[in-house]
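ok posting inputs for the 5-amino-D-isoleucine job
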Amino acid sequence: MIQKMVTEELDSFGEKIIEGFELSDDDLRALLSLESKEELEKLYYVAQKVRNHYFGNRVFLNCFIYFSTYCKNQCAFCYYNCKNEINRYRLTGEEIKDMCKALKGAGFHMIDLTMGEDPYYYDDPDRFVDLVRIVKEELGLPIMISPGVMDRDTLLKAREKGANFLALYQETYDRKLYEKLRVGQSFERRLNTRRFAKQHGYCVEDGILTGIGNNIESTVISIRGMKANNPNMVRVMTFLPQEGTPLEDFRDSSTLSELKIIAVLRLMFPKCLIPASLDLEGIDGMVHRLNAGANIVTSILPPDPRLEGVANYDRGMEERDRDITSVVKRLKIMGMEPASQAEFEKVLGC
Ligand code: SAM
Ligand code: MD0
Ligand code: SF4
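and the output
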């Protein structure tokens, strides 16, 4: 379909999506099969058009705080899985409070509190709820939590203390692949935790990985799986092999690029938040992701050298270029700008 379209036809394809046209599985297959630079440029053009219709040139900025890198799980793709013998850290409440003080007025729309499934917090989840309280009291900003599969009672308490968003990525809706990735973890529990949060007033983020053995069919299944649960934010991240993990030497030869999937996600989820994560290719990569239809920059790090990303394209590099000032500077060069807080809260519906 899109291959032969000229500009006016691409424009009217974008219009159709905005008017509510829904892609079929065959449409998804066709779009995910695009390969040539020219075809992909057409896809990004339509995705940008749809994104601009809802968000104009405005971009949201999410601050990433990975406050504990301890984890009891063994995800095959993750550097922080419990079998990997690495240095770990856990910030104290006091340290997080100080960090919040330094973040006042920095320009973030939301703070993402992320941890591994750290037994310190899983044994006594009120400790986690207390962190949410501290961050809310200090900054008053919307809070995303990414704590893994937390129990329902704790999710409700965290919601009460001001958590607005739950990020919990299924990684894939292809169950065979899921078992290989999230080793020993229940597919249903993960799904149901996200559903429960959504039913109880959270916005939710779902996500998938690419370059990890997914093919076109499993990617279609995953996009449909995410759609069925009506997420507020949907992401795709390229798998980056991590030293010391079972998938350390895994190399994928598929052409299912993150950029192509971001654009397809924009057509499937026109009004959703779609991240341009700095975790995979930094600020240069952010530009490409925004040009493919993303509208929220994630994995922007606070000015504290102890903090980590997750996939960490820049692990071991001398300098990290993931601060909000550099992001905003580059947005301006692109002709984009940070949205207002009011615009973000409208998206959240709060
Ligand atoms: N521990 C919590 C959990 O797993 O839900 C919170 C951390 S979660 C936000 C970390 C996410 O980063 C994973 O769900 C996965 O999508 C992504 N990720 C982890 N390792 C990665 C890697 N090597 N390459 C790309 N993405 C990765
Ligand atoms: C990111 N490193 O946005 C972060 C992380 C967790 N909610 C997000 C995967 O890329
Ligand atoms: Fe732990 Fe999350 Fe990494 Fe899995 S992805 S090992 S749950 S930190």
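notes: The chain has a mean pLDDT of 97. The chain has one domain: 7-348.
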